[in-house]
């Protein structure tokens, strides 16, 4: 709702306030000895993360030209993985991971917020938001010229104008209105499934088992944090690779391929963990499966999910879709965090069979349900979904309309 009321740019700037307040409170919690400040700070930084993960890809997806929309939307995943890698590095004991430095480590979350406050005001508001939501032609053209140049902005304006005409009289939808719209049923089901699967596909289990696998491979315990940095580097590298490939290979190949490979690695990891003591080289095979799983996740599901959140909806429904997708994503993360210890205790290494089934089913669903969205306008994607999954009533109305037109022609 912040993205609708204050605009995409305004919501991002307002969100930076949460990060600054959180950093201040968490930094003061240790010297003042007031642990409640830490709790409030963690709550605020959670709000910041939740809002940012929705509004930031929404803004990038709307300002990007059609030919680069996927690559620009991948910026969210690239910087998330870059942030994870940075956290792993600065969290080492030699840097800010010591007992005396954790308040400084928690307070570093103010750095991206300060940078955003300094840099974002120089960027324009989303032209789509200005034209379709606010009806401001002048500011829309100004923003387009700043983003695309005075000579080539007309192509993007044409696309937006077509969507604006198609959406005349349609107000921004509330989240619950999306559930009641039969024309958005498949798009909504798809983003809910993909956001849920992004947390329930086993990536968290992989990170949980990583230390055990590295220990069995003979890596000294004190060296494992440095090896763990390698997992973060792998995910960051594949996010960059996905950003380079997403406009050439398309979304379907990357996300279906990613989930299919993750299915394979889950099976192999289950086998290698079961026979961990059978041979000295088996732990190294397990370690290879860990890195291969992380690479496969980053290559498809880790990044393409955010792109599809943007592309499957037109302007009135997109913010509400992000709210639903983001809520499902975080709730799934909370759910897996709560039940995962019980899954591991009950199934041990066989827990990866659960994730294997999940990854396989998601790959099958995408293969049969989700069309390719590469290099298509938002309106074209919506029309393709309507052609594939339009309601029977819409089809009957279209048939009646065609029949009436033929009868009128015959009378003439």
Helix content: over 70%
Figure out the total of helices. Answer: 20
SSE string, helix = H, strand = E? HHHHHHHHHHHHHHHHHHHH
Number of strands: 0
Uncertain regions spanning at least 5 consecutive residues: 392-412
Mind summarizing the main beta sheet?
none
What layout of secondary structure does this protein have?
Elements: H1 2-5, H2 7-32, H3 35-63, H4 69-90, H5 102-107, H6 110-119, H7 127-133, H8 137-148, H9 153-166, H10 175-180, H11 185-200, H12 203-216, H13 224-249, H14 251-274, H15 282-299, H16 301-311, H17 318-347, H18 351-369, H19 378-389, H20 392-411
Helix pairs in contact: 2-3, 2-6, 3-4, 3-16, 3-17, 4-13, 4-16, 7-8, 7-9, 8-9, 11-16, 11-17, 11-18, 12-13, 12-15, 13-14, 13-15, 14-15, 14-16, 14-18, 15-16
Describe the structure.
The protein has 20 helices and no strands. It is an all-alpha fold and 412 residues long. Helix 3 crosses helix 17, helix 8 packs antiparallel against helix 9 and helix 12 packs across helix 13. It is globular, with a radius of gyration of 24 Å.
